[in-house]
Amino acid sequence: MAEPRWLDEDEARAWRGYRRMFLLLNARIARELAEECGLSEPDYDVLSMLSDSKGRSERIKDLAARMLWSQSRLSHHITRMQQRGLVTREEVAGDRRGASVVLTKTGLKAIRTAAPSHVESVRRNIIDLLTPEQVTVLGDIAETVVERLATDSTSDRGTGARPG
Amino acid sequence: MAEPRWLDEDEARAWRGYRRMFLLLNARIARELAEECGLSEPDYDVLSMLSDSKGRSERIKDLAARMLWSQSRLSHHITRMQQRGLVTREEVAGDRRGASVVLTKTGLKAIRTAAPSHVESVRRNIIDLLTPEQVTVLGDIAETVVERLATDSTSDRGTGARPG
DNA sequence: ACCCGTTTCTTGACACGTCATCTACATTGG
DNA sequence: CCAATGTAGATGACGTGTCAAGAAACGGGT
User: Coiled-coil intervals in this record (chains A, B) (predicted)?
Assistant: First the structure.
């Protein structure tokens, strides 16, 4: 193999910084969420998605697709959340394979309580630290990368589609 | 609690985009690394750090601190990597509590093989998609957030008070 | 109707990370 | 020196995420 194009100084700074930021930021936000609300980030994401769904329920495959989770991951997670009373499973009319997740009263209360505190956490630990321009550029960057990855990729198991 | 300051459109776009980008980017890069080199990202990180250390070995506590990992995490991971022959443990002269991780010949070979392919992966999936300006801004953002999180190790939750 | 491939969801095994806890050693202060 | 406190590392339990495999139902072609 020919000598690869190693990252230059700026690129390495960005890449390492990005990874380090994720590590710390994720840990911090997860910890605050757990301490204040007793929820993990995945819990929060599921509840948040569900609370925006019509009827506060959604088919598992649709929810998984919307969240970019594998069905397997969602199924496992729902099982755990179900045991804590945050959601329930329900059959789907018209497709006996199907299953929906439904937000329980407890789950709704949990997300309603958690949301304000979570937003504050996000502001305090990243958004409010940045200039409006930086916020916009971060959005641009994410859009570019996501578009590229979402189109030529897979959400569940690897397709093995490899360039080169 | 008063009505929180919800994220505006740009902020929400940045935050959601960032999370989505991480989800997809991490999955993609991890998958390529696993398929091409048989390494996980944490494997790669440990090997990469070790290969830059003097003597290709480092004390566990120092390595953990440098990587921003908990000692426990590193200890667990080293156990798994040890079983695959990538590293070994070694006693430390002068402190009988201590232990070092040492890169094996196999581990060195693994990281040397993996590095070029990993850099290509990073380029293909993010760095080369961005303008130089975006790369710089990403580095700036990460620096800002990391600095804040690294210094402020104990949280000042609840008040919304922020150091100026 | 039946077969066959596909979709939807679940499950089990395993890798990974965190937390609390434990052991062993080191260091400090009486 | 000895007790108390602190530090280094390992470990077990548990929650989480991935993959492969399986079960059940769907749907199209014959």
Answer: none
CA distance B36 to chain A (A): 10
- Restricting to B residues 69-98, those with a Cβ less than 8 Å away from any Cβ of A are none
Distance in Å from the first CA to the final CA of chain B: 23
A15 lies within 8 A of chain B by CB:
yes
* Å: B44 CA to D1 C1': 49
Class of domain B22-151: mainly alpha
**CA A17 to CA A22: how far, in whole Å?**
8
- The predicted-structure confidence for A44-59, as pLDDT tens digits, reads as follows 999 999 999 999 999 9
Domain ranges of chain A: 10-151
Question: Are B8 and B96 a contacting pair, CB within 8 Å?
Answer: no
Give tens-digit pLDDT for A75-91: 999 999 999 999 999 99
